[in-house]
Amino acid sequence: MKRITLAKPDDWHLHLRDGALMGDVVGMSARQMGRAIIMPNLLPPVTEAKQAVAYRKKIIESLPKRSSFNPLMTLYLTDNTTKKNIIDASNEKHVFAAKLYPAGATTNSDSGVTNLKNVYPIIEQMQKEGLPLLIHGEVINNLVDVFDREKVFIETILGDILRSFPELKVVLEHITTKDAVDFVSKSKENVAATITPHHLLSNRNHMFLGGIKPHYYCLPVLKRKVPHQEALIKAATSGSSKFFLGTDSAPHDKGQKESACGCAGIFSANAAIELYAEAFDRAAKIDKLEGFAAHFGADFYGLPRNTETITLEKNPWTVPDNYDFSSSKVIPFFAGESLSWRVLY
How many structural domains compose the chain? Predict the structure, then answer.
């Protein structure tokens, strides 16, 4: 197969930053994606519906002319989130979910939830309103190995959330382990997961062999090839509607990534669908890409599938070493490496 045409994909987990930084990257997602769930971890975070609407307005103003890209907004849960915040969000047509960051879990998560039990009344209101809960599923405990934090979260916390709120729609974000694949696969239809291109195409060897590679550092951190990366590939390419596209594309200034204490996050919005096509093609499952990229997420959120299409051609090209990022540079995933598929614009 040398050319494929798909319904235009959606990105169900995207970081766009703010201001000039956003202006340098938002057009990349807009060219490839019909819609995207926009993460709320700005400084300060997006904690109210009115802030989400204001942020959306800035995104729209930063888009290329005649772009049809639709940003779907989220709220950032904190210890101080109120039931009214959730009701207001459910009544706002541009807000589609709320995001749970355990405090300290990742970039700009210091305002996150410190004790999950404290926000159970808020989660109960979300269940009542039908507002999905998006979860960064890691425990934040220095006694738990960083490679085990997702597994322990699933074992000790996630099950209790679903038992307490059985009708709550939950997306376990950017899953990285076989444990997560198995949990989501066995759960009811109200539980789904997003999978990133970097977790499909790389494992912890890519980050460590031959020296530390800061541009492979993300949270949750890359795991072993066996059994974890292989389980993610199998899940993504299985045709199961429980798993769908979410890049977790997170642009950082090159200097912040390459510092003594580098930021977590991998930037992939520049070539998102090409990266997924690479992973699916390597697994000999390119025929399963459209469902994963364009159908299953929309179905889970109760939105119409995109009618616009994109076409990819198998024509190798080299990913640029960097892109402009305000006054600095951002290094993309697969920088300087060859990808087999390219979108025809």
Answer: 1
